[in-house]
Structure formats: structure tokens, C-alpha cells
Amino acid sequence: MSEYTVINSRAVRVDTPDKATGKAVFIDDMTMPGMLYGALLQSPLAHARIVSIDTSKARNLPGVKSVVTAAEAGLVKYGVSPARYDETLFCHEKVRYVGDDIAAVAAVDMETALKAVSLIEVEYEELPAVFTIEEAMKAGAPVLHDNYPGNICAEVHSEFGNVEEALADCDLIKTTTFQNKRQDAAFIEPQGCIASYDLSGNLTLYSSTQVPHYVQRTVAMVLKLPVGKVRVVKPYVGAGFGIKASANPLELSACLLSMKTGKPVKMNYNREQVFQYGRARHQFTHTMTTGVKKDGTIMALKHLCYLDGGAYSSFGIATVYYAGSLLGGPYKLPNMKYDGYRIYNNKPACGAMRGHGGVAARACWEQQLDMIAEELKISPIELRLKNMMVAGDVTCNDLNMSSLGMKECIEAVKDGSEWTAKKGKLPKGKGIGMACGFFVSGAGYPIYRSDTFHGTVIVKLTEDGGTALVYTASAEIGQGSDTTFAMIAAEALGIRLEDVRLESGDTDFGVDLGAYSSRQTLMTGHAVKEAAEDARRQVLEVLAKELNVPVENMDIKNSLIEFKQGNVDFTGLRTRYSKEHRGWNDNPADGPLTFREASRIAYLSKGSIVGTGKYKPPELGGKYKGATVGTSPAYGCSAQIAEVTVDEETGQITVDRITDAHDCGLAINVTSVEGQMEGSVSMGLGEALFEEVKFDKKGHVINADLAEYKIPTMLDMPQIKTIIVESNEPNGPFGAKEVGEGAIMPTIPAILNAVYDAIGVRIHELPMTPERVYLAIQEAKKGKTG
Amino acid sequence: MLLPKFDFHEPKTLNEACQILAAYGVKAKLIAGGTDLMVNMKKKILSPEQVISISRIGELKKLDTSGDSIRIGSCFTVADLSTSDAIQKHLSALGEGAKNLGTPLIRNLATIGGNLGSARPAADLPPALMAYGAQVVLNSLSGERTLSLDKFFLGPGFTAAKPDEILSEIQIPSLPPHSGAGYINIGIRKGQDCNLVNVASFIALDTDGTIRNARIVMGCVGPIPLRASSAEKMLIGQKPESALFARAGAAASLDSTPIDDFRGTAAYKRDMVGVLTRRTLDIAFREATHRQ
Amino acid sequence: MKKLINLTINDQHYEVAVEPNQTLVDLLRYQLGLTGTKKGCEMGDCGSCTVILDGKAVNSCLVLALQADGRSIQTIEGLETGEGLHPVQEAFVEKGAIQCGFCSSGMILSAKNLLDQKSNPSEIEIRRALAGNLCRCTGYQKIIEAVKSVPQAN
Ligand SMILES: Cc1cc2nc3c(=O)[nH]c(=O)nc-3n(C[C@H](O)[C@H](O)[C@H](O)COP(=O)(O)OP(=O)(O)OC[C@H]3O[C@@H](n4cnc5c(N)ncnc54)[C@H](O)[C@@H]3O)c2cc1C
Ligand code: FES
Ligand code: FES
User: Fold this and answer.
1) Which residue, judged by its Cα, is nearest atom 33 of ligand 1?
2) Does domain A16-23+452-615 have CATH number 3.30.365.10?
3) Domain C87-149: which topology?
4) CB A784: neighbour CB atoms within 10 A?
5) Which pLDDT does position A653 carry in this prediction?
6) What is the pLDDT of residue A651?
7) Percentage of residues in chain A with pLDDT exceeding 90?
């Protein structure tokens, strides 16, 4: 039995009845009076100098209201990390990938806008292009950005402890190289927005974004508007997974076009443009050398990584850091050396995607740990149990495990999958494998260097009493954050969930850094809790005065006021409340004093009751360069076991079952936590088996659709057994921490290890398509016979 | 995703359709389920000036198993093929192809005629149909002709149907006793996938149990679905057994002419032809031993 | 040139003028304001535009508005009854089968279409019937649980 009345339950989500009936409004469901339609002119070439742009024919087309290029947009540089602002709204001197934005048009309808785009004449001087890391790093290779010679967008070099010394003392040293492929988030709702500029100079942008706050700042900066004049509102969003976590050219173009025309402007990406814009998971090439003692104790990790970055930085600097720092846990690792490089080339930029930076690294390492376990004749589970950290441990790179249910997770999946009965006992072609993972619960620092609060929240009680309005700028993008925060507010105030109404995703509600780095439950959650407690305190203080009862002797539960000591006569208050509502037939007549009455009385005495809350992470460890990437107030962790069948003649893999345990601190909404775990597994399974964005020799995405870019369908997914582990995180609201991204970490390596168990062949490159698996089996056979 | 502009016609009879088609010739395109044509028009691969819908022509939607051949109207949907008991009973390999085509939503629109008309080398229905020895009936104002499906496909997107011809019906000769067929397709994932390789095999046994007739058809490994003629020859007159099927698979591999593309290498496809040929022959043999 | 068509949507009769190159999904969304039907790909790949056309679930992005002339269409907006949510909608809400919700309209209609044709479908039947509806959020687990939990007539 839970000690809580609202949280830690399976409360039905507040947004899903609307979503089940088609009433929920997503961006493309919106229209505005006089709305224009915008379209982009995007580069057909991967690398070219722009010699001239002639927009006159487009401008003269009837129905066209505005045509903008870099000449109109200005050349303010923007991007994700201020240290690498390397984009301008439109290309001015050159284009750097197929799809780079050159101009935008607003017209009375879509057909006219597209026609106008086709009438813009651009003269290009084609430049040699580079599409791979090898090409981009070759001496004399064409350079994408003049100030980044060698096309090195970012490099990281760090060492904690002394790796060479430690390796010299190891009994077993293992080196492997592993590569994943460029992934696409493949959310089902393409990006879209409507910008509306009014006559007083206020700009409102409705957008399918995960981060209204960052979009607001970028729009203001690029279009040179005061931040206070820019409002960003997020309707319901058809998921983002990281790709919608920064301002995009659609949003900026729509804003500029609306400012030019004084009309609302709607813009959308079609599916092909979603792929062309990219910004999803990088291709990582990891080479790892791990040293262990005979008994399996992990001593050192030497790690080299190259990221295929694409044409711009996007989130890439954070990505290259994360790819190294997230191996600090969840195992005790005293010595760790990391060299990471992110390389520019003429493909769409890569960015952040679920499990930012850590997914391929985790896959590489967890597979390597299994190889080590096998050589040492230790079970993979034993090896992990032996090395894992526990709450209170600090990693060599200063990440503090304030809670860590790693052991519980491992044991839960071991039991839940009947590992002992299966491991080593399955017929050939069937296999079982396990892996662990861990992830941050919110980035410790904002993307721009700042002392800002990461979240501010307002809880306002309706003046007539009874309902708490929660205003947060956080972003519900499908993960269920609105429900989570409504539940936290209800719990902290002591009222029922149905007595809370929550509004989110609007920059007018305050600051919230948004839905990325698995931060909202912990960070926004704290701010919600604080705001709700503030409102609660104010109500109780008024009651204390009115009834002459100390605040400590009162409580609010289930929307009722509880008096801890004896009977308190509140008939005077009740009468006052009833007088305020003459003619109403549902005034409380008998029974305990209600929150409705209490909050009305509080209003009568103080005016509107407004509670405020805020959150900023405490001072976090790590003073070295790059310490800001990876530090977090808390870390979630997980373990998974995959069971697979491999058709050795065709190479086809069937994942039969996944058992998944995740430590989320405390599950505010149990169903939502499971939902994140299950969704993570499917995304990991897709990356493991099918997904790869492919390019032709000219830099066009070949498979820019959901037919040839293959995400799992219902027939590809196994039954997933989810087990929630609750470790009660001291830094989390009510003990809660992340689940949104960490849950993906073990999926790929668990499948890799299961496939090895099934066929006895290690695969070090994703995706494990039938052909790749088949070839690996053939190679191994040749090796044996020849 | 705007479609190009076109005029739309929706004739009620085959004859009316033939008239409209005759009037516009190459400027017109037939639309049945639209699941192929609409995608091609959205991608601007095709921009016909006239679109003629044949999906309301009742006479094109029938399935007739009463005579000495099974006759399927060109607008019979893939969904109906996949659930029809008659198809399951007589033409299980075709049913298997239908079950594996696209998605349930696509199958509810897609037609058998459209699947042949699209002439995709990876299409799911041609291998089984060719293995069963199907013929197509082509209609135009000047009359009707039948053509073996073996001669229908000319290349990706191209068929032997003339610009004024409509494929009205697919005819499959009734199966002899002791005959059977199998179909297998493989892709990257299990749901909704474009095939990497697909193979259908048909065998008919003599009373003494030897193989009297065999047809093996391979998709995705040539510009059109291909017959594996040397594998077929190898089978005829032999006693069916797994070693023979394996050798036939190897022969079919050599009969195939796959190319490298972004979906897979020629070498892999070639090897898979071998595996699928053997496996479909196994299924065909099992069915043949049961069919009276 | 626009042509006049007659069709029934959610039991209501409509007479509308449509362009030959207009798709059914665009007619529903932009002309009739029935925005519950979504567009995720416009190529038949995702299923978010699923509607039930004369009793069959189809991708409305692959159907011309003109082809719907004289036909009967059910969209997500037509599922609710005076009594409240349709049992399939209810099950999706109860079981947590909806996250971002962008696939949900299509998913629910495919599920309803399945249950209309077959009561108590097995898990594999559910997986086959809903394989044309992509969901990137849920991993499908709770969707299957929801479909299984829908109370059946007998
Ligand atoms: C998401 C998706 C998945 C798919 N998956 C598969 C798959 O797995 N396997 C597969 O084989 N196909 C697949 N397809 C392709 C397509 O659905 C099938 O080929 C289908 O059978 C086409 O039938 P249709 O009636 O929709 O064709 P339409 O699009 O109506 O027509 C296709 C072509 O044939 C011509 N045509 C149609 N009928 C006739 C006729 N009677 N006479 C002469 N010409 C005619 C048309 O002019 C057109 O050129 C898929 C398509 C989509 C969109
Ligand atoms: S929008 Fe129709 S299937 Fe994706
Ligand atoms: S709930 Fe988001 S795509 Fe299904």
C-alpha cells in the first residue's frame, strides 16, 4: 500500500480522452483567420557556393505575399550550444547539405507557395563534397566551415585516473570496435508551426516543439526581438525524441514571414523533409579497450570515438561529451580515458536523440563486457553484480549516484526472465542476453551558460475555491508530463487529481527548459511540488488564523481539511462560504471542512492565492572541462534481458521477449513509467535490427520515408515485461527520477548478447539486418573450416 | 503532398472504361486500389492528365472457381484474396502472397490487377501466380486477348498491356491432383516490408510419385519475376526429397540475376533464392502429397 | 475543376465540391474540419490517416476524395456515442495505450475494425490487424493489452 493518495498510482492520464476521440489539437489541426502558407526552398546540392539568388519571378506570382532570403533574415548565427552557433536562418554564401535552407515563401495557399519556390532562381557553383568521416578528415579535404579546419567540429580529451598504468596491471585486456548507424527519430507527427505577428509587435509562435523556452530565445535572438515580445505555445505534440528540442528553420522562417506580412503563417515539413532535416542520432564509431582483473574487477577503459556529425553542430558538442562521460557508471571504473571527435560533412546535421550520446557507447561496452565475462568464465550477471555501483558511490568523472537500484534491476530481470533456467540451455538458434544502462535525470546545466532556474511553476487556486490551476512552461510531448505534474500538484496540495487543472507548454507561464535530457519529472516536478506546497501553506495559514489552530495541527487530504487534535468548530467558516454561494445547491452542509471552503476563505482574506515554485540543481560535482555534460542531480538505471531466435539460413532475427527493469526512483504514474520503458525498448529494437538513414553518392537521403526507413511494427515487437524498481531518490520530488531515455540503454546490447548466445558469432555493426547476420555467420563458418 | 492536376473518370462498365482509355491512350492511367499509383503521383514519378477509376466496375470484382480454371477479376482486393477460403484451398501460395502484401490497410484497397499492373520486381503476387501458370485477360475496344503471365512483365513498371488495354481477369488452370505450391518472402522486418527476395514454387507429382511438372518463380532478382528454368529442369522426373530440393535451390540461385541495391547485395539475394527455393519446394511437396 | 460529391461521414450526409486531385484525408481535415484523422506520411506507410470506408479500414491519404462519392466513412470523431467513449476508446485510455496520441485515431479505428469482424482476437491476430499503424511511442505493448481488454459481445 502506497503512503500516497494520488501519486504512485495508475491514474488515467489527463490528456488521453481527448487524444482517443480526435479532439486533441496538434499543430496541423490549427488554422487562423487570414492564414498564409509557407514553403521552403532547400538546396538540391550537398556543397555549393551560392552565386546569385533571383526571387523576382516568385515575388511576381499572384498570391505570393512575401519571399525572404538571407538578405531579409540577416546573418545572426544561431544553433544549440552558444559555443558553436554555426547556422544562419538562410544560407548566404554557401549550402552545406541537400536540404539546407535558402529561401522561404508565404502565399495564399500551399500550391502557390510551392509554385513560387520553384520560380526562385539560384545559381550555384558546385563544390566538392565530403560524406564520410574518412573523406572529411583527409588532408586537403574541402572544408565546410572556414573556422573549423580539418572539419573537426569538436574534440574531447579527458582522462580520469591513469589508464595506461592500470592496463599494465590487468589480467585480461579486450579491444573491440563497434558502429551504429545514423538513426531517425521517426516520430509520427512531422514538425510544423504557425507564427502570428500582431500590430503591437507581439509575435506568437505555435509549434510542435519539445522546448518552447529555447525556441523563444532563439527566435528573439535571430529576429532581433525583445524576448518579452515573443511567446511560444506548444499544442499537443506527436512526440519528438530530441529532434524537436531546438529551434528549427521552419519556426524561424514562419516568424519572419509573419513579421513581413502581418498575417499568420503556417509551415510544415513533409516526411521527406523530416529526414532531410535530420538532427537525430549520430553514427558513432567506438573503439574501446577494457582491462580487468582475473576475478572480473573492471580496472580501466580506454575509449576512442568518432561521430559522423553532418553539416552543422546542432547538439553535437554535448553529444560528443556524453558519448564518453556516460560510461562513468553504473560500474565502478577507477580509470577512464576518452578521446572523442565530431566531424563535419555534407549530410544533414545529427543531434540529440533518446539516450543522447550514450546508446551506441553502451551497446559497444556492454557487449564487450559479455565477451570478457565469457573469457573469464564468469556469468554475465555475476560480472555486472560484481562491478556495479551502489547508492552513494561517485564515478571517476564525478557523477554522484545519490540513488541506484542497479542490483535490484539485475535481480528483477534475472528472475523475471527465468534466466537461470535458460542461459546455456537453449537450443542452437535461440539465445538469451542481458545488459545494463544508466542515464542522467536532467542535464545539470542549461544549454546556454546561465544561472537561470530550470523550471518555474505557478499554482493558483480558483477564487471560488476548490480547483488548483497549475501553470508550467514544460512540454507534454506524449511522455505524460502533464499528468505527472497534475498528480504531483494534487499530492502536495492534498487534493484530488480531478481538482487540478493544468496548463503547460506556454512561455508565458514561466521558464521551463523543456522536454529533453529526461529532466522534467525531477526538475519541473520539484517546482510543481514547491508551488503546490506554497499554495497549501497559504490556505492553512489563513485557516490557522481564522480557527485559531496551529498550522502543524492541520492537514489537507483528498480535498478535505483534517484536524489532528480533536474537534474544531468551523461552522462560522462554513456559514460564510454558504453565504457567498446563495442559491447554490451543492454547498457543503455537513462533514469535514472542504478544501473548497478553505481556499475560498483564504481568498477572501488575502486575494488570489498564488503559490510559486522553482528549481535549479544544486552545485554539482566536477570542475574539469566538459564536466557540465553528464552531471545531473540524479541517475536512473536499468537492466534488460532479451530472448531471440535467429534463422541461421537467412539471418533473420526474431526478438521473442524482453524483460526490462528500471529504477525510476519512485513512479509518480506507474502506467506512464511502463509506457516509457516499452517505448524505449521498441526504439532500441529498431536501432538494433532495422534502422539506418541511407544516402546516395550525392548526399540525398535514399530512404526518406517510413516504408524504407524501417521502424518496428506491431509484428516486430515482442511481449515486454516491465518491472519498476523504486530506489527513492533523495534529490527527486517524492523520490522520483528519470525513465524516458535511460530505459533505451540496455536494449541494443541485450539483443547483441542474445544473438551471440544464439549463433556463437559476435556482431559489431548495426543494424543487425538479415544480411549482416547471415554474412557474419558465413564468415565465422569460413574461419572454422579454412 | 499535393497531387498533380488531372481529370477524373469513373466508368461503371468495362466497356465504358475501354472507351475512355481508347480516347486518351498514354495520357491516361487506370486507378484500381490506388496504392501504387497515388504514391507514384505524389512523388511526381507519374503525372497522368486523365485518371480512370475502375474500382466500381462490378464485373471486375468476381472470384469464380466453378469452371476448369479459377478466374479472379482484376479488381478483386488483396484483402479478399488473403481471407478467401477458396483461395486458401486451391491457391494457398497466392493466399500467402496476399497475406504478406503491405499492411491490412493497404490490402483493403490494393487489387490483384493493380499488383500486376504496377509490375514491381518485388511484388508479392506475381511469383505464385506465375508458378500456378496464370494467364491474364486484356480487354480493349478492339476485343479481348489472353496472355500468359510469363509474357506479361517487360521491366520495372512496364507490362505487355497496350495503352488502350485493361487487365480484366486472371485465369489460373485448375490444379491437377497431387500438386502443391509454396510461397515465401523475406524482408528486413516482419510487418509492412518491401521484399528482399520472394520465391514461389509449384510441383505436380505423377502417380508414381516422381515430379511431373515444376515451376519456380523468383522475385526481386531481376527486372521482372524470373522463372528458375534450370532448377525446374533438374526437378522434373525426379523423386522429391530434401537433397534434390537443396540442389534445385542451388540451381535457382544461379538462375537469378540480382543486383546490388540499397536494400541488399546481389550475393545475399542470390543465396536467399537458394534457401527460399528449397523451403518453398518443401511446402509445395507437403501440399502435393495431401491434395487429391 | 471541382466536382460535387455526396458522402456519409459518421452517419451524417455531406454534399461537397472537391478537386479531382484532392485526397480524402485533405477533404476531411481541411475542408470539413475533421482533424482527428492525422497525416504522418501521406504515402500509406504510417496509418495515422486511417478511416473506415464502407466497413474497411484504409489509408485515407491514398484515396481520392472523388472515390469516396456515395460511400460511407467513419472517422475517429464518429466513435463516441451519446453514452460517452466507444469501448475501444475507453480501453485505450484505461490501459495507457496512448502517449503522444498522434497514431491513436488510426490505431483505434483499426482496432475497432478488427473487433467488428472478429470477437476475442488472439494476440497474433491483433498484431497482424494493426501492423499498418505505426506507433513510435508505446512499443505497442499497452495497445495490445487495450485491444484484448475490450469487453466482447459474447
Ligand atoms: C505502404 C505500401 C506498402 C506496400 N507493400 C507492398 C507489398 O508488400 N507487396 C507488394 O507487392 N506491393 C506492395 N505495395 C504496392 C501496392 O500496394 C500493390 O502493388 C497493390 O497490389 C497495387 O494495387 P492497386 O489496386 O492499389 O494498384 P493501383 O495503384 O490502382 O494501380 C497500379 C498500377 O497498375 C495499373 N493498373 C491497375 N489496374 C489495372 C488493370 N486492371 N489493368 C491494367 N492496368 C492496371 C495502374 O494504372 C497503375 O499503373 C505497397 C504499397 C504501399 C503504399
Ligand atoms: S498519412 Fe496516410 S498512411 Fe501515413
Ligand atoms: S502514441 Fe505517439 S505515435 Fe503512438
Assistant:
1) B118
2) yes
3) DNA polymerase; domain 1 (1.10.150)
4) 8
5) 98
6) 98
7) 96
Confidence of residue A482 (pLDDT cuts 50, 70, 90): very high
Whole-angstrom distance, CA of residue C106 vs CA of residue C114: 12
Closest-CA distance, C13 to chain B, in angstroms, reads: 21
Q: Which CATH architecture has domain B7-53?
A: 2-Layer Sandwich (3.30)
Amino acid sitting at position A780: A
For residue A755, the surrounding DSSP H or E stretch is: helix A747-759
Mean pLDDT of B148-160: 98
pLDDT band at A621 (very low <50, low <70, confident <90, very high): confident
Distance from CA of A421 to the nearest CA of C (A): 25
Per-residue cell: A439: 542515464
Taking the CA of residue A536 as centre, how many other CA atoms within 13 Å lie in the half-sphere pointing to its CB?
A: 25
Atom of ligand 2 nearest to the CA of C46: 4
According to DSSP, the residues that pair with A660 across neighbouring strands are A640, A722
Average pLDDT over residues A163-182: 98
* Cβ of residue B160 lying under 6 Å from some atom of ligand 1: no
First vs last C-alpha separation in chain B: 53
Q: What confidence score (pLDDT) does residue B88 get?
A: 96
Q: What is the mean pLDDT of residues A656-683?
A: 98
Domain B181-290: which CATH number of 2.60.120.260, 3.30.390.50, 3.30.1330.10, 3.40.1000.70: 3.30.390.50
Q: Would the CB of B102 count as within 6 Å of ligand 1?
A: yes
Block residue for cell numbers 544516402: A695
Round the average pLDDT of chain A to a whole number and report it: 97
Put simply, the answer to whether A769 touches B188 (Cβ < 8 Å) is yes
Look up residue B58 and give its amino acid. G
C-alpha of residue B62 to centroid of ligand 1, in Å = 18
From A654, A649, A679, A700, select the one nearest A743 (Cα to Cα).
Answer: A679
Residue A626: per-residue pLDDT:
86
Closest residue of chain C to B35, computed from CA coordinates = C62
pLDDT (0 to 100) of residue A785: 66
Nearest bound ligand to CA C135? 3
Beta strands A719-725; A652-663: pairing state: parallel
User: What pLDDT score does A627 carry?
Assistant: 86
d(CA B246, ligand 3 centre) in Å: 45
Domain boundaries defined on chain A: 16-23+452-615, 31-127+188-238+244-277, 283-445+622-785
Q: B159 in ligand 1 pocket by Cβ < 6 Å?
A: no
Four-way CATH pick for A31-127+188-238+244-277: 3.90.1170.50, 3.40.50.2300, 3.30.420.40, 3.40.630.30: 3.90.1170.50
For B94-105, what is the mean pLDDT?
A: 98
Residues whose CB is less than 8 angstroms from the CB of residue A654 and which lie 6 or more positions away in sequence, other chains included: A644, A645, A646, A647, A718, B190
pTM above 0.80, yes or no: yes
Residue B193 has pLDDT above 90, yes or no: no
Chain C closest-CA separation from residue A476 CA (Å): 8
pLDDT digits (tens, 9 = 90+) for A333-369: 999 999 999 999 999 999 999 999 999 999 999 999 9
Residue of chain A nearest B187, judged by CA positions: A770
CATH of domain B58-173: 3.30.465.10
Structure confidence at residue C152 as a pLDDT band (50, 70, 90): confident
Q: Which chains touch A (3 or more CB pairs under 8 A)?
A: B, C
Q: Rounded to the nearest 5°, which phi and psi values hold at A268?
A: -135, 150
CB contact under 8 A, C100 and A239: yes
Tell me A328's DSSP state. Answer: S
Question: How many beta-carbon pairs under 8 angstroms link A with B?
Answer: 52
A283-445+622-785 CATH: 3.30.365.10
Choices 3.40.50.150, 1.10.10.60, 3.10.20.30, 1.10.3880.10: CATH for C3-78: 3.10.20.30
Atom of ligand 1 nearest to the CA of B112: 21
Is the C-beta atom of A188 inside 6 A of ligand 3?
Answer: yes
| Chains in touch with C (≥3 Cβ pairs < 8 A) | A, B
Identical fold between A16-23+452-615 and A31-127+188-238+244-277: no
Q: A716: helix, coil or strand? A: coil
Averaged pLDDT score across all residues of chain C: 96
- Is residue A478 in contact with ligand 3, taking CB distance under 6 Å? yes
